[in-house]
Amino acid sequence: MPVYTDSEQLYAVLRRVFDTVKERPGAIESFTRSNLVIRLRLTEPTAEVLLDGRQPPLEVFFGARPGKADLDLAMPADLLHEIWSGQRKLRDVFFGGQIQISGNIFRAMKLADLFREAEQVYSEIQAQDPPI
Fold it and tell me: Which among 46, 56, 72, 118 has most CB atoms closer than 10 A?
């Protein structure tokens, strides 16, 4: 059974995660100074998040957005849950090909601090709301 029942539930969790991450600008400075736009495409359920690191503060857009991102990452929502909840290592799924990547893979390294912070926030949210 999927972790998220529908896109609305997934978006609600993603909003909580990224709203909290944005409150910690020092932890994600490497991304907000990266000059990158990252599109995160999730499936099962479907969701899309655009992360704009062209300048501080971090801008996050939920839902389909026009335009080209520097890097597109696509994965099932359950895989993102497994990464952020510590069940799977980002490096293993990234290099294992379980995340589909479009764009310069070497630029993805700029995401490390942002994903690490999101993982920490996600754990905090899980502790507050165990169903996710």
Answer: 118
Nearest to 23 by CA among 57, 60, 63: 57
Domain 7-126: top CATH class: alpha beta
Cα→Cα distances 114→4, 18, 32, 44, Å: 22, 10, 9, 23
CA distance 84 to 30: 19
At 47-87, the pLDDT tens digits run: 999 999 999 999 999 999 998 999 999 999 999 999 999 99
Residue pair 93/79 in contact by the 8 Å Cβ criterion: yes
Residues 110, 88: Cα–Cα separation, whole Å: 20
Domain boundaries, the chain: 7-126
Given CA atoms 16, 127, 74, 3 in this order, what sign does their dihedral have?
negative
Percent over 70 (pLDDT), the chain:
98
Give the CA diameter of the chain: 39
